[in-house]
Amino acid sequence: xxxxxxxxxxxxxxxCKSEVTFLDGELGILRYRxxxxxxxxxxxxxxxxxxxxxxxELPTTEQLVQFENDIRKHTLVNEEMKNIIDGFPxxxxxxxxxxxxxxxxxxxxxxxxxxxxxxxxxxAVCKTMGKFxxxxxxxxxxxMGFPLNYYDNTKGYVENFMRLMFELPTxxxxxxxxxxxxxxxxxxxxxxxxQNCSTSTVRMVGSSHAGLFASISAGVSALWGPLxxxxxxxxxxxxxxxxxxxxxxxxxxxxxxxxNDPFRLMGFGHRVYKNFDPxxxxxxxxxxxxLATLGVEDPILEIAKKLEVAALEDEYFKSRSLYPNVDFYSxxxxxxxxxxxxxxxxxxxxxxxxxxIAQWKEMRENKEPIGRPRQVYVGYPLREFKGVDKR
Length: 391
Ligand code: CMC
Prior knowledge:
Pathway: Carbohydrate metabolism; tricarboxylic acid cycle; isocitrate from oxaloacetate: step 1/2
Organism: Flavobacterium polysaccharolyticum
Number of strands: 3
Largest sheet: 3 strands, antiparallel
Bound molecules: carboxymethyl coenzyme *A
Number of domains: 2
Strand content: under 5%
Helix content: 55-70%
CATH architecture of the largest domain: Orthogonal Bundle
Oligomer: single chain
Keywords: Acyltransferase, Transferase, Tricarboxylic acid cycle
Protein name: Citrate synthase
Number of helices: 17
CATH superfamily of the largest domain: Citrate Synthase, domain 1
Pfam families: Citrate_synt
CATH class of the largest domain: Mainly Alpha
């Protein structure tokens, strides 16, 4: 009833109340459950932050050990899932496969669909954290034609990610601690970002009481787009293109400013941040450290730096408050760590998983109503039907 206001892209509409993440786009502040992203990225580990985001408090040592153990219990994925993976062509994009496999988990874990009490909720959380990591790496193993790996219970979550990805039957894989720690930090920086496109999708799908796996599968699809998580892949492809084209950053800056050219500077701009993205600041520092420690000299990084400096001084970017976002630097680190470009958005998904879970859980616990936006109809008024012979 009443007047319907439309707000395309929900630029000024809140969809819920949330206690998970605080974000001030003007000041460039990001906090999970009241803790600053700077503190968490520097002092905590990914599973610790996941626990915080999902359950609301930092875990005690006991709670953390329990959480890690409970996740570990759920890292075996049904063998039949392998048949599904085998059905995909090797060339399939890992995000498409990840979304399909996450949805397929529902078939093998029907109990996680209707979460009715705290115990079932906790189990669904641990299951999702365990299985999602494994299937995320399987999308890569499949594309490479490698045999699928299993979780190693003697190793941590992030270290397992590297092993699951890269260990071959020819011998054990030793993850470089520098790499593991950089990845841990990247996952923390991605853990939640309030009502972004994929998270809103997870909440919207979940609001019909669809289960956690189905809701997260929808979140993966939303994240895939180049305006959202897919930007990290797009940034690297853009930098590679500039490099091939002679490394002229100014030329691409001009293209981005040209309103007749659809090209946008990928990794720049944000719906909410009208100041430096605090995550980009942390990632930029981490990128420098990782590249120095691993001894990587990457011409792509030089181009990224040139682009950043040029854009930050440019009137077009300044007047529109377009700053580098989290995706601008993450791809450079992933590349230095040996992660293939088409897996970048999957990395984002692994990091964002606790946020999606936390928001789905909050939505269910708050007993939020089904999401059902209205519209303003602008089509034809009533028309007279004419039979096909009269059209
Ligand atoms: N390059 C050139 N111009 C831009 C860019 C860009 N990257 N981003 C925004 N603009 C311009 C845009 O053309 C518009 O100009 P005008 O006012 O003259 O029409 C103005 O800035 C405002 O842009 P908008 O598209 O209305 O802003 P939005 O809030 O709808 O979009 C965005 C936000 C992130 C989708 C957009 O900035 C963009 O496309 N950036 C590139 C893709 C990207 O890096 N995405 C990652 C986002 S951060 C993390 C994540 O979600 O994954």
